Structure formats: C-alpha cells, structure tokens
Amino acid sequence: MQHKYARPKASGLSKSAVSRLGESIAQQVGFEPGGDVFAVVDRLGGRIHYQDIWELDQSTSGSVVIEGESDFDIYLAKHTSPERDRFTIAHELGHYVIHFLWARRHGETVSKLAATRYGSDREEWEANWFAAAFLMPVDRFKEALEEAGFDIGAVAERFKVSYAAAEVRAKALGLD
Length: 176
Description:
Layout: H1 15-28, H2 37-43, E1 46-51, E2 64-68, E3 71-77, H3 82-105, E4 113-115, H4 122-135, H5 138-147, H6 152-159, H7 163-172
Parallel strand pairs: 1-3
Antiparallel strand pairs: 2-3, 2-4
C-alpha cells in the first residue's frame, strides 16, 4: 500500500456492539439475508474488482481501499466461490463502516484507509463480527437453523454463505 493510506484501528466496540451495528447497517441499506451484497456496495458508492492469483501479492491487493465517503474499492480473488466472496464483501464493508465511517464520526481523523488481505488482529475480528451479523442476523439465523433441523448446509444455502461461515456463526451463537 502507498503510505498515504492509514491502516484500520480497532474501534474498541464490544463484539455485541459490532454485531448490532452490522445488523443495523443491513437494515438501513435494505439488505435481506441471502440478498445482493454487490448492490449494497454499489449503493454505498463502492466498486468491486477481481484479481487473479498472480496479482494477489501486488501492492494494490488490499481487500478494501477507501478514498473517502461513498468512494471505496473492494478486491476479490477470481478463484474463490460466490459464497466466500459474499463474506469477503461483507467483511470489507465492516472495515468501511467501523474503521472509516464510525471512526470519523467518533473523532478519528481518517481520510484514506486500506485494509490488507490477510491478518488476525482485533480489526480483522471486528470486520468478521460485522460480516457475520450483516449476512446472518442472529434472530433470523436461529430461526433458520431450527426450521432446518440444525442442518448447517441448508442454513448456509439459505443465507448464501459457505458451510464454514454458517458453522462458525452457529458456534459463536452457542447453537452447535
């Protein structure tokens, strides 16, 4: 990344606060579980780009590069599944909402931000919590899991996420 881009900083929000924010943003933008995340990105002023496996280590391979409000780019690998892409998009929206919009509204001076593709720090956890709540809101997820007889595969299909994402969500909610 070029030096003009800040890296995300942890918000300090609790996991439940991040989850509530994810669900709230989904409602505000009219996103329904299983809905079109590409349309959400477009509505928020973002663009999605695909990179092949040979481009992933280049300096522009950040998963999200934010130039300003309603001006950001999300980068996806060409070789991943549509379900995986949906989670990645929601994760990058988490960085945009938490580490850019929310941070700015709470006194941070963030003008441009870039989140790298890999990592397991607090900022990445926050983006994952946001993505899980955005794509699989807790009440709807619990209801779907019960209706499906706790069949994780059926729930993953309903929410259009990977089996792994639905499984992690069930475990995180104590429903496994």
